[in-house]
Specification:
The protein is mostly helical and 146 residues long. The chain contains 4 helices and no strands. It has 2 domains: 67 residues; 70 residues, F1FO ATP Synthase (Up-down Bundle), CATH 1.20.20.
């Protein structure tokens, strides 16, 4: 299973190196081998990740009872419950990020014309960021139920 992690690491390193090359030399990026290289790196990364998840799932399901005696016992149901507790925070954070982007851009555009309405733009940004706080509060309330 370690070879899959190595393949995933090499795929990510290839994407990072390609991005750095494209950033440093944008005029020379018109080489025809860049796009297939990025595509191959992405395919290798996704395939290795899927294989790692499949092999890891089989390894966890085949674990004996003695392997889980190190600490508290976590069942599959408890693990899924903990993942379910994190979902509201994750989705609300994504929603807040989607909301803050256009609101922030519009705020900057308006502030260039009328700097006196800075307070109103902060209120709108705060309302958009409040979405993430609502998700965090829901996760905390759900964590109490586990």
């Amino acid at each position: 299973m370690y070879w899959l992690i190595a393949v995933m690491t090499l795929g990510i390193a290839g994407l990072i190196i390609t991005g750095v090359i494209m950033e440093m030399q944008p005029a020379k990026v018109s080489r025809p081998w860049f796009k297939p290289t990025i595509g191959i790196n992405l395919v290798v990364f996704v395939a290795a990740q899927a294989a790692l998840i499949f092999m890891g799932f089989n390894e966890v399901m085949a674990a004996t009872e003695a392997a889980t005696e190190g600490g508290g016992e976590i069942s599959i149901g408890l693990g899924l419950g903990i993942i379910g507790v994190g979902i509201p925070t994750a989705l609300s954070t994504i929603g807040a990020g989607i909301a803050v982007g256009p609101i922030g851009a519009a705020s900057l555009a308006v502030l260039a014309e009328k700097p006196e309405i800075f307070g109103r733009t902060l209120i709108y940004l705060g309302l958009a960021e409040g979405i993430a706080i609502y998700g965090l509060v829901m996760s905390i309330l759900l964590l109490d139920k586990i």
